[in-house]
Design a protein that fits this description.
23% of the residues lie in helices and 38% in strands. The longest helix has 17 residues. The chain is α+β, with helices and mostly antiparallel strands and 266 residues long.
Length: 266
Amino acid sequence: MSPDLRSVHVEIGGTAIRVLTEDSLFEAMLLARYGPFVNPSAQTTLQFTIRILPPSDPPEDGTIQVDVRNGRWSIRRGDVQCVFDPASGSGFVEQTANPYSIDTVLRIIHTLVLARSGGFLLHASSAVRNRRAFLFSGLSGAGKTTLVRLAPPDVRVLTDEISYLRPGSSGYTAFGTPFFGDLGEIGANISAPVAALYFLAKGEDNRIEPVPPAEAAGLLLRNVLFFAEDPGLVKLVFQSACDFLQAVPAYRLTFFPDIRVWELIR
């Protein structure tokens, strides 16, 4: 590694990625942005070198494009471009000096890594209570952030936006992530076995109902984060979602936004 490059190890879900930059201010941004997810001693097999571009007008196109060419992954959006070689585990990123563009890259790379290990990222908030993790999934506006914002003191929030899920020998584990939504706070860097998945709906009272398997599969798949148009990986993600629902009970949680909803979640 060049002596001019500064190294920040960002570890999420047990997978550490080394981010390299020559820019000391950007290094400080990364350290502040990822906080407890920075682990200088973590062993890394993936690394990205960041080239900081001059400031520019906000991008008009926020669409993410992910594809593979000659074995290399290309990630493009208006504010960031990345090329990643999975064979070497290395990538190159061009972006302006903000931590949220590299956020996009890290999310996508984790989806690729998880797809090969039976896990996935889910558009869901999640929290730990009594050493068990509970997932709250739904589209924007369903109440993911509201639910964790209402959490009582004995609950630790893993994320209000993107849950990190991976299978193990005794079921699925949910990990905290630094990826946040309206809550504006990174999750706790802890993990716990998944106890239940709740699909959120707003109502005048609080109640829980089982969701039939076919309906649960459709609801889950529309909230799985995956951007790559790769048939092989898409098939793996689809199978992972089906396996997840075989192992984790799924419910519909209709709730009125006050703390009493947590009386049902234990």
